[in-house]
Every structure is written in structure tokens, then in C-alpha cells.
Amino acid sequence: MSILQYLANYAEPESACAPPTDRQYTDVVVVPAFDETPSFLDGLLPVGSPTTLWIVVANCSVDRTDGEKQRTRYLAKALAQGGEALSDGMALSHSTHGDILVIDRCTEGRELPSRQGVGLARKIGCDVALAWQRQDVIVTSWLHCTDADVTLPPGYFKAAHEFDKETDVVALCYPFWHQTESASQAGRALELYEMSLRYYVLGLRWAGSQYAFHSIGSTMAVRFRGYLQVRGMPKREAGEDFYLLGKIAKLGVVRTPECEPLHITQRDSQRTPFGTGPATSAIQADMRDGKEFTVYNPRSFALVREWLEVLDEYAKTCDLTLLDRLSHETLKQSLPLDTEKHLRATAQQCKTQRARAQRLHSWFDAFRTLKLIHALRDHGLADVPWPDAVDSAPFIPEPQEGEKLRECLARTESHQALHSRRL
Length: 423
Description:
It is globular, with a radius of gyration of 22 Å. It is built from 15 helices and 14 strands. Among the domains are: 1-140, no CATH class; 294-422, no CATH class. Helices cover 43% and strands 15% of the residues. Helix 9 packs antiparallel against helix 12 (353-363) and helix 11 runs antiparallel to helix 12. It is of the alpha/beta class. Strand 4 (90-95) and strand 5 form a beta hairpin. The longest helix has 23 residues, at 185-207. The strands form three sheets. It has a nine-stranded mixed beta sheet. A three-stranded mixed beta sheet has the order 7-12-9. A two-stranded antiparallel ribbon has the order 13-14.
């Protein structure tokens, strides 16, 4: 699909706004902002330069409370004050750390539809960036996304440009660290949640999955061409990052830049129906009820590993009897219902081992991987208490002397990401 086709058929209306003719940007970041104060920019702007474009989508859906709407409208007005009006609801202001394009999707008549919150807000900003890149106002190949609760590290943009010539790299997932109050129950809950995210990614990496990366909207950057090929950001009120990266990962490689982590502020947030805020609140509720924190059974990742090896072997042999040789009945029961049908179609339609392998791993994607792990849980591999998972998981290393487990997991992730890049 061409950019013109995308802009004509799939882009949001804001993308038709004409860019300034006297500006050119070497970096661009899209930031959805709901119920924030203008001070959130303090954690973002310092890493910018005069040629950075910050696209802030001040958004509020129609079903939000009056207080949330009023605060978001104040934010939009404050950020746009003194700026140049580009169109109705869009204003551009200048600073030493870059230009700020404010898109108003929160005032009455411009509010987002119900159940299309952060996904649609990101899409609006990303579509504008794509349109401006086509007009050579934006000259980078990277489209960055982050959130208002983030502090960006020095070298944020430089870390992405290290991959400019590695054209097989289609997306980046920056290292991150939640700023927590460890002494509080909320802080401990967030630490557990973060460690469970790292546990999942390390488990998938050990299993050999090409989808072993974090899907966190505030830490991602994608190639403009990849964004275009997957028809843009999903318009979901949550999980848009997971689905976008899952689709883009089928086009190439997802890497972790070598830089300091993004710092994500701890706060009590229910902005989305699932994700960090709701998950942390649920963990705290379990703590109060005396329930143990649990994670996926480590055995699940061993079965995912076995299944991925079967797919690779099938790509070589096209031998359907491989399904009969699976070691665990639970795995057989948990596979997608259309598995055999898809294997047969792959053998018929793909003439080379490489083509078959690519098709199989594109079919068994991030979503189907997660569904398999859930199915394994439903068929008997129940979640296990966190300490038991740490003791038995083959992909969890021993912390170094004086190192906390949380630090150990983050270090292991970074080491593996750097090692895979060097390979």
C-alpha cells in the first residue's frame, strides 16, 4: 500500500492539516495526553533539540467524567497558548527543545468516541506524522511513541539512529524502569507487576519466540514504512501497543536500543481497562486479601519452546505426524483449532523451507502465543506463586552479589538484547 492510499483510506482527518513550510524535523514523538498537567513535558522536552517535533494529542472520550474533561481541556488550552494555529483544533508552538504540535481532541464536539481512547489518540498523532514525513517536513525514518508519565533518557534519539542503516529492524522497544516507592504496598505491587512483564519476555526469549519483546506504548518506536504496511495504530482503548508491535514484528526484527532506561512514574491510574494501572491495583487488592502473587507456569514456556521447534521441523519436512509426537497431551489440547489446516496450507502454498518457516511464524504470532499460554493454563498448567516460578524457571538467572531480583531481570534483558544485536 502506498502512503497516498493509506492517507486517503485509513488515516484520521487531522492528517490533512498542512505542515509549516519553513520547518524540518529530524525526530518526532507522539504523546497522547489525558487528564494531565502541562508539567508532564518536563520529563520529555530536555532530550529534544530545535529540530524535534513533539505531537501532543490532548484527548478525552465522551464517556469520561466532567472533571477529567475540564482538566484535559485546560491542558490543551495551556499548551496551545501563544502558538500558531495551523487549523481548527491544531496549534504549533516553538521552544529550544523542539516544536510542540497540540491536537485538541477533548473540547466539546472534538471528543473521542467511547472505547477508542489511547489507541485512537496515538493514531491521530502518528497519522499526522506520516503525512508530514511524506512532505519531507519530517526527515527521520523513526516514529516514536511515549506517554505523559515518562522521563526520557539522554541519548534517546541517538539510540534509535544507531539502527538507521539496519533496514531489517522495523521496531524498537526501549529499556524501561518503573520509579517505585518500594516501602509502600503500591510500590511493591508495581515492582511485582514489572518483574512479571520481564519474566514473560525472558520466558518467550528462552523458548525461541520472535515475539519476545515488551509491548509498552510509552517505550516503542516504529519505522514509518512498517506503520504504513500494517495500516496504522489499532483504535483500541487498551492493548494498541501489543497489536501494533505484534503485526510489525512479522515484517522484520524488533530490537532494544542500547541506552539508559526510560523512567516511568508510579501513579494510581485507571486510564485504560487493563495494563499497568489496573494490574497494579488488582495485585494490591490480592495483597490485602492475603493472596499470593502468581505468574504463568514455567512449564508453559517449555511447551511453547517445543511447539516452535515443531514448526521449524515442519518447515523442513512437511510431516504432519510431528503433531502426534508432541510430548505433552496438554500441548496437543491447547493448540489452535485450525493448526492442522494451516500446516497443510503452508505445505501446499510455500515451496521453500524459508518461505514455510516465515509463514508459520507469522501465523503463530504474538497473539496466538499468548492464547496458547492461556490455553495451557486452562488445561492444567495453573499459574504458580512468584517465588516458585523464580526457583523453577530455567530462564531466571541467579542475582549477583548484592543485586535485587528486579535489577537482575532488567540486567539480563539488556545483556540478551545486546547479545542478539551483535549476532
